[in-house]
Structure formats: C-alpha cells, structure tokens
C-alpha cells in the first residue's frame, strides 16, 4: 500500500535511542533532581490531559497547563511562575545537549525519496523541536513539524494525532505513522485511526502485535518503504 502521507516521531526515531541516550547521559548526571521532577510531571500530565475542560484547552497554552499540573503535583512549585521557570530552564538545558547530534544521512535519503515521489510528510514530537531537524540534516524537510506546544497534548492521546491529521489534510486511512515507542507512538497513532510501524525496535513483531511492521534499524524501514513504491 502506498500512503498519501507519512508522519514521523523525532527523538529516538530519526536517530537511534543510543545516540539520544549518549547526549542525555551527562545531562541526567548533572541535573538528577530536574529529571526526576520532569518525569513525574509528564506522567501526571498524561493522566490528566484528556480531562481538561474546553475552556482550558481553548484559552490556555500547553505550557500553562503543564505548569499548572506541576503546581498541583509537586509541593516545591507553589506558584505558576515557579513552575514555568522550571519548565523553561529544563527545556533550555535539554535542547542545548542536542546541538551536536550530527548529520544522519540514512534518514535524509529516505526523505529525499519521499519528496521525489510527492508523498506528504510531517513530524510530531512530545519534545520541543528547537533546531534538531536542521542539525540532523532534515531542515529542508521540516515544513510541517509540530510538538506538544502546538498540539496541546502528549502521546498517546489521540488528540495530538488528530491535530496532525488536520494539518496534513488527508484521510486517516491514508496515513502511516513511524515511531520508536510502541506505547506512545504506535498505540497512539492506531487509536487515532492511522497505520503505524515501529523502528529501532528491540524485539520482534510478536512483541508488538498492533504494529503494522517492526524494524530493528532505520535501514530496514527504508527498504520496506521503497518496496511500496515499486
């Protein structure tokens, strides 16, 4: 099947998790408290995100809602200003760690192929985008790139994927989503009505039953993808 649009996660998908972990290791060592706080915040936000009222979704930004959850779930952050300052500092330090990720020629080849074949594609990430796509050689392909700051949701909420669908302008049956997390990327995309594949996977297809296909490396995915166009 040839899809009209293919959408991609970024971190851990466009470059392997081992590369991401290498760049994050020093960050985790230097900022253990911040990382524990941030991990708790994200877990709590995922629990609450589908219960936000329409007014909260319409009138308040994702950053405001994330800060609000932090003030409610961590006594150290008593005010929204405290929580927003933490969030801003954390993201600033995090993005700084990715400034030397480097060029990823395998993924560039895939996107050049998709562009030549007039396939729509977009990027969707829970993490701030910063300049990561440019740093890994995909800057010219980043016309449609969104993070949770844009969608207002974290994966696997179907609402973030629905936001993406509205932007790319095709029917959900014609969309393939590509990610490295089974619980967030694959199950989230399937919940929104997309097909989904798993890349950089540790395990076989039987370990991820709802994934359309499972690939150990990006090169494996690239070969599979090109066969659809033959």
Strand and helix map with partners:
Layout: E1 5-8, H1 17-30, H2 32-48, H3 54-59, H4 62-73, H5 80-97, H6 105-116, E2 120-125, H7 132-135, E3 145-147, H8 148-151, H9 158-168, E4 175-179, H10 182-191, E5 195-198, E6 213-214, H11 218-227
Parallel strand pairs: 1-2, 1-4, 2-3, 4-5, 5-6
Please explain how this structure is put together.
With 230 residues, the protein is an alpha/beta fold. The protein folds into 2 domains: 5-16 and 101-227, HAD superfamily/HAD-like (Rossmann fold); 21-97, no CATH class. The protein is built from 11 helices and 6 strands. The protein has helices at residues 17-30, 32-48, 54-59, 62-73, 80-97, 105-116, 132-135, 148-151, 158-168, 182-191, 218-227, and strands at 5-8, 120-125, 145-147, 175-179, 195-198, 213-214. A 6-stranded parallel beta sheet has the order 3-2-1-4-5-6, with helices on both faces. It is globular, with a radius of gyration of 18 Å. The N and C termini lie close together (10 Å). The relative contact order is 0.16. The model has no long low-confidence stretch (mean pLDDT 90).
Question: What distinguishing features does this structure have?
Answer:
alpha/beta, Rossmann fold, 6 strands, 230 residues, six-stranded parallel sheet, 2 domains
């Amino acid at each position: 099947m040839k899809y009209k649009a293919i959408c991609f996660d970024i971190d851990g998908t466009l470059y392997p998790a081992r590369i991401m972990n290498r760049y994050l290791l020093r960050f985790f060592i230097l900022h253990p408290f911040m990382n524990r706080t941030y991990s708790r915040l994200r877990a709590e936000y995922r629990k609450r995100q589908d219960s936000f009222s329409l007014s909260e979704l319409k009138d308040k930004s994702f950053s405001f809602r994330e800060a609000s959850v932090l003030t409610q779930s961590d006594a150290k952050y008593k005010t929204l200003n405290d929580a927003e300052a933490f969030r801003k500092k954390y993201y600033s330090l995090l993005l700084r760690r990715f400034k030397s990720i480097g060029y990823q020629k395998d993924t560039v080849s895939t996107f050049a192929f998709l562009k030549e074949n007039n396939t729509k594609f977009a990027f969707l990430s829970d993490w701030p985008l910063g300049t990561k796509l440019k740093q890994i050689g995909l800057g010219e392909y980043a016309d449609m790139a969104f993070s949770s700051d844009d969608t207002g949701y974290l994966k696997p909420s179907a609402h973030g994927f629905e936001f993406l669908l509205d932007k790319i302008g095709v029917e959900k049956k014609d969309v393939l989503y590509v990610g490295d997390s089974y619980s967030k990327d694959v199950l989230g995309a399937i919940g929104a009505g997309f097909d989904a594949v798993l890349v950089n996977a540790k395990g076989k297809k039987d370990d991820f039953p709802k994934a359309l296909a499972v690939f150990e490396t990006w090169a494996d995915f690239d070969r599979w993808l090109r066969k659809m166009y033959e």
